[in-house]
Amino acid sequence: MSAKKIYFIVLLCYAFSINAQKLQINSSKNYINSIESILLQEKNFGRDTTALKNYLNPLNTSENKVLYEGLLANGYSNFYNKRNKTSENYYLSSIQKAKTSDNIGLEIWSKLNYINYLYFYRDYIKLTPFLLEIMENLEPLRAEQIINADETYKRIGWILNTFGDYNKSLHYLKLAEKQAKKNTSEYASIINSIGLNYLRIQDYKMASHYLNETAKISSQIHDDVRYAKALGDLAMVSQQKGDFATAISFLKKDIQISEQNKSDQNTMYASILLAELFFKNNRPEAAMEYLQKAEDIAVTKSYFKKSELQIIKLKLQILKLQNSTESELNLRRRMAAIEDSLQSEDGDTAINQANWIIEKNNYQLRINEEKNKYETILKKFYFIIVTMLSSIILLVLVYFIKKYRDRNIQYEQKVAAFESEKAKIDQKDHQNLKSQIDYLKEKSVQIKNLKTEIENIQKSSFNYLEKSKGKLNTLLQSHLMTDQEWTAFTKEFQKGCPKFYALLHQNFPEITSSTERILMLQRLDFSNHEIAELMEITNECVKELKIKLKKELGDNYKALFGRFG
């Protein structure tokens, strides 16, 4: 087979392999699950950006653009293996698109994705504002609303641990612990971080518990690197307890496993810790050996500068102990250069500045919290005042409604009583003069009582009821004598007092009906007041009419009443 054919076949196979490696988008009713299934497929293509773009191409759509640009930024970070403009442009574009999508879960993921990049390259100052935004965004959300909730909580916990906010770090790591699946590398990583937090706050009992649990789980799931890290962390616990032999043993095992698994960063960290232990135990040669191992790794990456600075400072201490000036000048020059570069990135100054930003934000949050408390108290106060006023108004309203009902009941009871009395009077027999006299006298009393009651009501709070209903006035009108009733009375009067009636009409043929009625009532000994009520005139008017009749009739008046008086 010719070389051209072999080259063509290899090229064809490569093309097929490239097309075969494409990210799969699985549709799911749960949006968060769909996103998480995509993120699980993320791969490191190293320096092959063509394969990276081809793999991520299914995400290059309007609905998945945030994920596409975020993962593409990660890919370019792997390609350059350092801070680079291409990655940062994609990270920021991903964040901006997430914000405009109005999807808070996606926005948190895009920011955290950028934070991971900045944290990896030790730019603590730049990541801090994004971290504060995420922490604020997370506050009202439930875990099921967050993409990779366990990973999100864990990352925040890690960063806060770096900033020295161990209690807050523990808070987020405990949240991560609740969300992570047990007996997984992720779970082991979380409880390892919890153990380190307890170590920082000098709770060695809890630190040992969590770190031993990390080692146990890592061993069971064959996560050798995590197991090695757990041993290194347990070494720090042993060191704090003064058990240097155990600490050294743990660190040697840590380095051995890390080297076997090509975990350079962990090898470097463990070597520095072991060198410090040897130095404290007055074994400078052994310390120098492990410092050199650590330095060989530290100089390969720009983001290991802080570790390199730590190595140089320890080397200078050893040289001082040995009274040696060998390579001291070069070490000090390198130390000065690193310290200068760390002023704005990975170093105590940068961490202090980041802490200051956090403290400033916490202060503002406390002010806002106090302001919110004050506003809440004010709202409660207004609510209480409004409630009290409403209650008072309601009570007054209930009182007046009850009073109205009571007055209405009392008014109706009065009307009913008068109606009952009228009914009793009306039911009696009026077929003779005596019954007619009783009837008229009782009617007179009822009329008098009704008038008195109406006058009293007009002066009282019941006045509006009588004005609106007028039942007592109606009843009063029903008591007044009708022509039919007067005719019946006159008929019975004729029967009972025939001589008086005959003489009255014989001597006074011109007499009016009203005058006749007054004279008949007077003959039956009705008082002026009773006559006034029955005739619908005043008491004074009755007196004046009698005086007038005496004058007009003269001796005839005396003769009339003298004969029958």
UniProtKB/TrEMBL annotation:
<comment type="similarity">
    <text>Belongs to the Rap family.</text>
</comment>
<feature type="coiled-coil region">
    <location>
        <begin position="360"/>
        <end position="460"/>
    </location>
</feature>
<keyword id="KW-0677">Repeat</keyword>
<dbReference type="Pfam" id="PF13181">
    <property type="entry name" value="TPR_8"/>
</dbReference>
<dbReference type="InterPro" id="IPR011990">
    <property type="entry name" value="TPR-like_helical_dom_sf"/>
</dbReference>
<keyword id="KW-1133">Transmembrane helix</keyword>
<dbReference type="InterPro" id="IPR051476">
    <property type="entry name" value="Bac_ResReg_Asp_Phosphatase"/>
</dbReference>
<dbReference type="GO" id="GO:0005737">
    <property type="term" value="C:cytoplasm"/>
</dbReference>
<keyword id="KW-0963">Cytoplasm</keyword>
<keyword id="KW-0175">Coiled coil</keyword>
<keyword id="KW-0802">TPR repeat</keyword>
<keyword id="KW-0812">Transmembrane</keyword>
<dbReference type="InterPro" id="IPR019734">
    <property type="entry name" value="TPR_rpt"/>
</dbReference>
<feature type="transmembrane region" description="Helical">
    <location>
        <begin position="381"/>
        <end position="401"/>
    </location>
</feature>
<keyword id="KW-0732">Signal</keyword>
<feature type="signal peptide">
    <location>
        <begin position="1"/>
        <end position="20"/>
    </location>
</feature>
<keyword id="KW-0472">Membrane</keyword>
<protein>
    <recommendedName>
        <fullName>Tetratricopeptide repeat-containing protein</fullName>
    </recommendedName>
</protein>
